[in-house]
């Protein structure tokens, strides 16, 4: 667990999540990072009783990258509000097939969650029950068969990046749910929460954190070279 912690102080802890890890418990009953980190802190710090840890925001199970957990209730309430107010800047990396797309583009769609199949339905125009979804991507690297996109999120909708890129004709590598032709060996998708920037909720310092990409994936390694 220790090697996954990329930032920690008395108020918060930031993890570089691996593909397949759950950020918090769900109906599968599988181990979640929330519980694993609690156990780790309890043992490391020799804490009696319960350890307080709150999830500030989530990323999907098949993705990797940065997730913030709060170690105090004050930090949790402040950070949750900051995320809601879009005061936490999130930058993602995504690998997509090499297609003719603009080098940079701001995508605006409207998303509605289909609860039955846990998928976002994308509409080009405002539609009843659908929420506005906005992101900007830049092509930052060209590989033999793939493009590396850097993505800045303006909104945080369910499966937003996955759904919007798919609608644009470039589903994320490995993302069968949104139209990728084949799965990745590890069952994940090439979407990585790369960078977080925010003002610390307690100390008011500027925090900037970058997460290395998964090293067990040759495409990711090529992106970081």
TrEMBL record:
Gene3D superfamilies: Pseudouridine synthase. GO terms for biological process: pseudouridine synthesis; RNA processing. Keywords: Isomerase. GO terms for molecular function: catalytic activity, acting on RNA; pseudouridine synthase activity; RNA binding. Residues 11-166 form the Pseudouridine synthase RsuA/RluA-like domain. InterPro entries: PsdUridine_synth_cat_dom_sf, PsdUridine_synth_RsuA/RluA, RluA_PseudoU_synthase. It comes from the Bacteria. The keyword Isomerase applies. Belongs to the pseudouridine synthase RluA family. This is RNA pseudouridine synthase. It comes from Candidatus Chryseobacterium massiliense.
């Amino acid at each position: 667990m220790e090697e996954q912690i990329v930032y920690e102080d008395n108020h918060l802890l930031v993890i570089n999540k691996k593909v397949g890890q759950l950020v918090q418990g769900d109906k599968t009953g599988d181990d979640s990072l929330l519980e694993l980190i609690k156990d780790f802190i309890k043992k490391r710090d020799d804490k009696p009783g319960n350890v307080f840890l709150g999830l500030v925001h989530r990323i999907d199970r098949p993705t990797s990258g940065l997730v913030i957990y709060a170690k105090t209730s004050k930090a949790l309430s402040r950070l949750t509000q900051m995320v809601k107010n879009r005061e936490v800047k999130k930058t993602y990396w995504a690998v997509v097939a090499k297609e003719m797309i603009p080098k940079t583009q701001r995508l605006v769609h409207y998303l509605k969650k289909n609860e039955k199949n846990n998928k976002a339905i994308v509409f080009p125009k405002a539609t009843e029950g659908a929420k506005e979804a906005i992101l900007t991507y830049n092509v930052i690297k060209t590989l033999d068969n793939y493009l590396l996109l850097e993505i800045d999120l303006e909104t945080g909708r369910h499966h937003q990046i996955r759904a919007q890129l798919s609608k644009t004709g470039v589903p994320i590598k490995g993302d069968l749910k949104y139209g990728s032709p084949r799965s990745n060996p590890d069952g994940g998708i090439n979407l990585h929460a790369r960078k977080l920037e925010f003002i610390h909720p307690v100390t008011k310092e500027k925090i900037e954190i970058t997460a290395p990409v998964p090293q067990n994936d040759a495409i990711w390694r090529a992106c970081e070279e």
